[in-house]
Specification:
The complex is a heterodimer. Chain A is mainly β. Chain A contains no helices and eleven strands. The radius of gyration of chain A is 13 Å and the shape is globular. Chain B has no helices and eleven strands. Classes of the chains: A mainly beta, B mainly beta.
Chain lengths: 114, 111
């Protein structure tokens, strides 16, 4: 069984540009989460999808971040326009009821905004 | 103020030594998880502790949940270079699965 896959692994963009991160969860997992770790800080929750619906987006930093989950399968996280403070590692995780707490993480996308 | 405080933040030891890392909070939790993350990879769940005072063992790793369910420890016996990595504690919602992480302990085991 394939694990959670994230693309790209690394992205270096200039301030003001747009970047789209993609996450393919484990097949059949209804829950999909995005997290972010900025340098020197803990991993922080961004948002949670249940199938195609946003369940909780309380962790999204601002309206420059837009997440979608088409048809309840893969998800994208777009940052537009990117700022320097958006640099960090973005993780995606998926899980399936009833064991929602057992999340499987992708390898992360390291985003560097210069 | 962080919900989960992990200590130490960094630990560098020789192969064969024992070590303990801690995860503390002033809040009470229904469960707590420990993850390990290697460079270039995402966190991988090691264990979930649920009951106050619970002890779980995973080979040379021993996890304990505090009696009051506010803290936890991870003890590694006879550390090996393969134990090198970032150890994270986390608490989550059983309803939503949302996780809150500590900052992590970076462990380096030198051969």
């Amino acid at each position: 069984e394939a694990g959670v896959t994230q693309f790209p692994s690394h992205s270096v963009i200039e301030k003001g540009q747009t970047v789209t991160l993609r996450c393919d969860p484990i097949s059949g997992h209804d829950n999909l989460y995005w997290y972010r770790r900025v340098m020197g800080k803990e991993i922080k929750f961004l948002l949670h999808f249940v199938k195609e619906s946003k369940q909780d987006e309380s962790g999204m930093p601002n309206n420059r971040f837009l997440a979608e989950r088409t048809g309840g399968t893969y998800s994208t996280l777009k940052v537009q326009p990117a700022e320097l403070e958006d640099s960090g590692v973005y993780f995606c995780a998926s899980s399936h009821p009833p064991r929602r707490w057992k999340a499987f993480f992708g390898q992360g996308t390291r985003l560097t905004v210069v | 103020t962080q919900l989960l405080e992990q200590s130490p933040q960094f630990l560098s030891i020789q192969e064969g030594e024992n070590l303990t890392v801690y995860c503390n909070s002033s809040s009470v939790f229904s469960s707590l998880q420990w993850y390990r993350q290697e460079p270039g990879e995402g966190p991988v769940l090691l264990v979930t502790v649920v009951t106050g005072g619970e002890v779980k063992k995973l080979k040379r790793l021993t996890f304990q949940f505090g009696d009051a369910r506010k803290d936890s420890s991870l003890h590694i016996t006879a550390a090996q270079p393969g134990d090198t990595g970032l150890y994270l504690c986390a608490v989550g919602s059983s309803n939503t699965g949302k996780l809150i992480f500590g900052q992590g302990t970076t462990l380096q085991v030198k051969p």
